[in-house]
Write the structure tokens for this entry.
Amino acid sequence: MRLQRRIAAIAVCCLLLLAGCWDSVELNRRAIVAGMAIDKGPSPEREYMLSFQIIVADEITGKNSRGNSPVVLYTGTGRSMYEALSNASKQIARFLSLGHIRVVIISEEFAREGIKGIMDTLERESEARLTSLMFVARGQMAKDCMTLMTALGKIPANDLVGKVENTSSTFGYNFRMEVDDIIRGIQVPGGGALMNGVWVSGDKETGKSNENMHDITPAAILRISGIAAFKGDKLVGWLDNGEARGVALLQHRLTQTPVVVHTDGNLIVFNIFDNSVHLKARAADPEHPVIMIRITQQASIKELNGNLDLMNPDMLKRAEAELEETTKKDVEKAIQIARSMNSDYLGFGEAVERSNPRGWKKIEDHWDDVFARCEVKVQVKAVTQSTEMRSRSMKMPE
Amino acid sequence: MGEVRMGIVQCFTLAMLFELGTAMVVNLGVDTGKDAWMSVLLGGIAGVLPFIGYIYLYRAYPDDPLSRYSRKLLGKYLGGLVALLFILSFMMMAARDLRDGSTMLVMATMNRTPIFVISLMMILSSAYVAHKGVEVLARTSLLFAVIVMLIGGFCGLMMIFSGKINLLRILPLLENGAWPVLRSVLVQNYMFPFGEMICFTMLMPYLSDSRRGPWVIVASMLFSALLLSLTTVMNLSVLGADIVARSPLPLMPTISKISISDFIQRLDVLVVMVLIIGVFFKITVFYVAALVGISDLFGLPYRTMAYPAALIILFLSVMNARGFTEHLDEGKRLLYTVFPVFTLALPALLIIIAALKRHRSAPRPD
């Protein structure tokens, strides 16, 4: 009995030592990476410039806080992603922990040249995860988008995640795009990826320091800006206005969005809070497929500047017709721009494939041509569910 | 045979964990793209057919493992040779699974830990349970089956709640026609993991209920086929066929996509747990089957060879191949050459001889 107990005790001690085996890294030896920026370096030896936004745990918890920056940025360079990542260790005293990367920002320069090399590392690395959000730094260094102090929340990377989620659920022109969304987009034949754009406005130098939070108006703000459209893995253009909303709608990713319409000199702002989108292809003749898009939208009225009688269903129907027209224009604009960029990131090819798999095999190699000329029918129905807390406007004469 | 008995529920869970084993996490039916789940399901049904043959043999010799009735059917020398070959093949399959499991652990989580150390830990735990005998193994499986089902249910629910499943990604069905799916079933999916049930011929004599027992195992096979197929559907509808086809362990990235308001996330550690549990049972069942064979063929006590066999399996697994790609390539070649001999050809031979014998010795009506 005694002997058994002794053996058991030794075994338990061994278990403690063996936890994680050769790969064990204690928490105080880890540097948690919250965000990563990828820039193109000046020379082939330094082609990949990876900047890591690392959380300074002591500053976050507050107890041992020295009042310094809550994150720190280090940059490593190399001929490849992984070399740059390893190279960064020259400056970082701790083991880079990639498991908690929230955002990855790629510079526009890189995006225009192709990002397959970058995506390979992001999906191959067993520590990194597919739920990180991806962005393109619009016309700026990706690194600059990582160096701004934020007033709300201490970690800038989390701040950026919050911005995407917030604008997606209220404004609707952008939506979450994760690593695997990008990879799937790249791999669609004839299609391409979509990525949110980010852009720093204001004084970047001041933005780096605590001063950015001293004033009521921050000196520099990182903002979401447009959607980057890719052909395969190369950036080909930016979607900004109605077309961005059209794309979000066609991707089933539009949640809420304000739509401004004019009816008989009245300005009405609808808030669309529910969309259902049916995208089907009629492709009995694969060379001439017809893409059928049926959209149903539920809206409420948020704003009325005019004297339209909202209690009159006929009047409301006229406003709804305008709303339908606006949505239709957004979608058509989105399609038109996708065609001008020659990239089927809208997923029409997949719809054709679903409806006629055999026909798709015949047109797969020249889908670009078919996509450019195929017929698209857009049908929008909008319903105003409520006028919210008031019926008639103040401007309405009694 | 002896006092050792496996209950009905235990043999269900043992067969289930054995089937799910590595198959749950690895990439099944790679060649069939979006239709992989169909080939997995059909493979399960096709895999039952050879098992019905094994049941026939079991009915003929309910108290004997394969190594004993092979000698009764083929004679002392030829039958002994066949039994020896089976024992070797079980040890080799155990070694292959050990290599699979430890390499996958290294790939997925422990990048810098030597494979040998992980293999050693795994085979030692296997050896411990194998040393305790078949009954302990069966009882252990009941415990772990509950854990695996809980993990599976939890992950499935979380996956649905996080809204990452998009069933459009597995459409259109049968894009390239039915032939690629059938081909995949015929060359691969009937064998892995369902054909490997041959090793249960060594364990079936321990069944407590010889009448219902074999059919419980069949039910367990079909149930695992359903689970594997569902897992494949989940992988495909979360990641898309392209990413799945390029992933050696698609279940990990799939589960890592679960994120519920940034609070419940990184559930892929659970997949690692399932992987370890599954690999453990896969190795141990093959290993115990080999041990039963050894003790029967050479007339040794069951426990004498437990640790020597563990050493053989460990070194087979390490010396097997230089790298994982080589190991997988070898597996592919074995799939067409060696495995069908042991799961189809030799059992078929035994079945035919058993049928002839029974026919000849049957009392003839006048």
Observations:
- Chain B touches chain A at residues 107-114, 117-118, 121, 168, 171-172, 174-176, 239-240, 242-243, 253, 256-257, 259, 265-266, 268 (CB under 8 Å).
